[in-house]
Amino acid sequence: MQKFADYIKKIEIESLWSGMKHIVWNLNPKVNILSGVNGVGKSTILNKVVKGLSAGGEFPSHMLKGVRIEVEPADARWIRYDLIRSLDSNLTTVLTDGDSSMRQALTALSGIAGGSLLDIQLYHLQRKYLDYQVNVGNRIIEQLQAGNMDAAQQLSQRKKRFQDMLDELFAETGKRIVRTENEIRFTQIGEQLMPYQLSSGEKQMLIILLTVLVEDNQPYVLFMDEPEVSLHIEWQKRLIDLICELNPHVQIILTTHSPAVVMNGWMESVTEVSDITV
Question: What is the pTM (predicted TM-score) of this model?
């Protein structure tokens, strides 16, 4: 049986670039923010760790040479994780002949601004969102059949809070999530919108919150590489708090250039790359 880690305790990288810069980073179970000037290695550190994990999150047999992690509990050999980047570009500039899944998604999104990397993420998250709703729905039915009304209601609260968050964040533009649809849709001035029709900043926030939601409150490591790039400054301030509210068991490991991300009491969670370089 797979034993998943609750969180990562330490990241050690023997050489960040060609034998230079040994990294030792002791992590907080909740929030870890990596800061530093451009080119110092923030994204490289995240990429080396994520590339060392198998698609299912298994380690250490799949860890790249020179990268080690310690987890809690120590005997766990799997990690639930995801990586969110800020980069967005048109899909036609990055697709290759081997990108069959991306081509399939692009076909599904045809006619909607040509498709982008953010759209690809949203497309796959929509599928996960449907699975999440089925799983939660089955658990609600089990609780109702057992007469546990309070437990059944509690199971539905996380999805409702996710929907409320989006309504609050998008209120200024008059967008509201459609709560009667299984897939994510929005209304704006009487018109129904697909998530692919949102702005880049709205897509980015939706992707982050949806990624957290569909993990269904399980222990989970969320790597984010400069997630604030497309976000309004007020959203940057709320970002960490919203993630932690949606899943209290998430461990956040992110890079950032923005002071706004740490403004809501997260300054003590900031680590400079120079402070973990030995």
Answer: 0.88
